[in-house]
């Protein structure tokens, strides 16, 4: 059963765990967390995917024995005595990735950094994080046995922060296998391996602290649904594996908190969907319904109602063609329960364009089965969707700065680009709110999915750019006027 997802907007608390070399400080979020690049990584041409998945994506051994490489007997050990047998088995497959960005101009300086990764095929496919490879053009990979390889990027997905690289002229490498993150329970032991602060082959251990943390607001348009752990994860751990006690990869270490005991990893089940697409096509093209969401907070003392309530159904979209209506509550997709709109969006994103799905929909007290052929998710120039803000249509996905704050020295937006905490879509009728992020400025203003934004800070609105310009004109206040149905509403919020 899917765990409840929590929407967190915590840019001030969470950082990506990639270490930039030569930084003047080792403080998390300062010297070793400025790795994210707006520019995409340098890609090799995608190779034709094999009919069979890489060995690391194949079925894993059952729990209770350490994951074995092909031809090796399962390793049995007692974790109450020592984890050494497990570490000895998996450590040869964990790598350190030295990255370098070449000089881009006469007076520019190149940059370098350190991340982590793990081998999933004996001919040199390595999984790491998107933000480890983004913007870099040279990669040197170090194995535990002392071998070093150059590497090129096979594919990368900013929305889940997963990337695959290929080692040059690699053969007969030791590999690890993926396990199931869905089967993890809060309290299960996990082990993190990587190169924190450049210290290669470092091992830490902890427990699964929570599941279903959402994308933590770290990425524009993010799809990651993080696991939380108290295993120590530091800058340089990015891209390294998080193992269960069977030696299976159950997560990809990604983000560190601003406090001890807060670390985050991409669930293996999500990575297993993305990785084959990266190997085959070099990118991920996601399916799309074309709907907005509508939040329905439960009454005090009442249990939340499961399902995703649809807001606006956009014209000319797969949702409109299938006959979905505003107010429909989506309970399941292909038999898998849907808790909320975030879960709906994530699940649809696991499919591709032209995939056919069956939705279990509750409408007027009756349940219906509705078949939908998904479309291709529009690019940022045609659909503006940001989990925690309004951004220009040409903004690249990537880690976002500090979220809105109502008490940051009189600056409502805390020095960042103007942000309302909403997802919007430009339509012929105007700029329409698709979803309102709980706890954001838009939520506090009372904005709802389906609202048409007409004026911001007294200025007429016809585009996303106009919203940004109006908000930037007065960063200590946001006054928003919207058209809602046949009426009009306005609200104002000021920095405290």
Write the layout of secondary structure elements.
Layout: E1 14-16, E2 19-20, H1 84-90, E3 94-101, E4 111-119, E5 125-128, H2 130-133, E6 138-142, E7 148-157, E8 162-167, E9 189-194, E10 202-210, E11 227-229, E12 241-243, E13 249-257, E14 263-267, H3 268-281, E15 287-288, E16 291-293, E17 308-313, H4 318-322, E18 329-333, E19 336-337, H5 341-349, E20 356-363, E21 366-373, E22 375-376, E23 422-427, E24 430-436, H6 441-445, E25 452-456, E26 459-460, H7 464-472, E27 477-484, E28 487-494
Antiparallel strand pairs: 1-13, 2-4, 3-4, 3-6, 4-5, 5-8, 6-7, 7-8, 9-10, 9-12, 10-11, 11-14, 12-13, 13-14, 15-22, 16-17, 17-18, 18-19, 18-20, 20-21, 23-24, 24-25, 25-26, 25-27, 27-28
> What is the beta-strand fraction?
25-35%
The main β sheet shows up as: 6 strands, antiparallel, barrel
- Contiguous low-pLDDT stretches (5 residues minimum) are 1-12, 22-51, 59-68, 380-418
Question: What is the third-level CATH name, the topology of one domain?
Answer: Thrombin, subunit H
Shape: globular
Total DSSP E strands: 28
The value of Rg in angstroms is 23 Å
At CATH level 2, the architecture of one domain is Beta Barrel
The number of helical runs is: 7
Roughly how much helix do the residues carry, as a percent range? Answer: 10-25%
User: So what's the CATH class of one domain?
Assistant: Mainly Beta
Q: Give the neighbour order of strands across the main sheet.
A: 9-10-11-14-13-12
């Amino acid at each position: 059963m899917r765990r409840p997802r929590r929407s967190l907007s915590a840019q001030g608390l969470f950082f990506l765990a990639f270490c930039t070399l030569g930084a003047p400080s080792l403080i998390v979020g300062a010297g070793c967390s400025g790795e994210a690049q707006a520019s995409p990584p340098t890609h090799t041409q995608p190779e034709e995917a094999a009919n069979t998945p890489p060995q690391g994506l194949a079925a894993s051994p059952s729990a209770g024995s350490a994951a074995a490489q092909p031809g090796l007997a399962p390793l049995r050990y007692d974790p109450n005595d020592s984890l050494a047998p497990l570490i000895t088995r998996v450590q040869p497959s964990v790598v350190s990735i030295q990255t370098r960005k070449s000089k881009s101009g006469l007076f520019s300086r190149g940059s370098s950094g350190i991340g982590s990764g793990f081998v999933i095929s004996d001919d040199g496919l390595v999984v790491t994080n998107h933000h480890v490879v983004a913007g870099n053009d040279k990669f040197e990979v170090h194995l535990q046995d002392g071998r070093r390889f150059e590497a090129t990027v096979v594919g990368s997905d900013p929305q889940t922060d997963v990337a695959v690289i290929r080692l040059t002229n690699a053969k007969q490498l030791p590999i690890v296998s993926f396990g199931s993150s869905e089967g993890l329970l809060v309290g299960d032991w996990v082990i993190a391996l990587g190169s924190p602060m450049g210290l290669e082959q470092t091992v830490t251990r902890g427990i699964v602290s929570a599941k279903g943390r959402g994308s933590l607001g770290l990425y524009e348009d993010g799809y990651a649904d993080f696991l939380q752990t108290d295993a120590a994860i530091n800058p340089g751990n990015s891209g390294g594996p998080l193992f269960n006690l069977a030696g299976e990869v159950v997560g990809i270490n990604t983000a560190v908190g601003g406090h001890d005991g807060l670390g985050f990893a991409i669930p293996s089940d999500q990575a297993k969907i993305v990785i084959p697409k990266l190997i085959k096509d070099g990118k991920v093209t996601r399916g799309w319904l074309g709907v907005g969401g509508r939040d329905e907070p439960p009454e005090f003392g009442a249990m939340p109602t499961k399902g995703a309530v649809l807001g606006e159904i956009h014209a000319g979209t797969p949702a409109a063609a299938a006959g979905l209506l505003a107010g429909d509550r989506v309970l399941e997709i292909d038999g898998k329960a849907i808790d909320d709109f975030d879960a709906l969006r994530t699940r649809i994103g696991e499919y591709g364009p032209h995939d056919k799905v069956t939705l279990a929909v509750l409408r007027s007290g009756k349940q219906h089965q509705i078949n939908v052929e998904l479309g291709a998710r529009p690019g940022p120039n045609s659909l503006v969707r940001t989990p925690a803000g309004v951004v220009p249509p040409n903004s690249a996905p990537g880690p976002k700065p500090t979220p809105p704050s109502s008490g940051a020295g009189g600056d409502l937006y805390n020095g960042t680009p103007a942000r309302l905490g909403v997802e919007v879509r430009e339509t012929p009728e105007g700029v329409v709110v698709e979803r309102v992020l709980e706890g954001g400025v838009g939520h506090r203003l009372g904005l709802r999915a389906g609202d048409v934004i007409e004026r911001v800070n007294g200025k007429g609105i016809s585009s996303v750019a106009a919203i940004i310009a109006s908000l930037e004109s007065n960063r200590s206040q946001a006054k928003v006027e919207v058209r809602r149905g046949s009426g009009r509403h306005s609200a104002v919020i000021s920095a405290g």
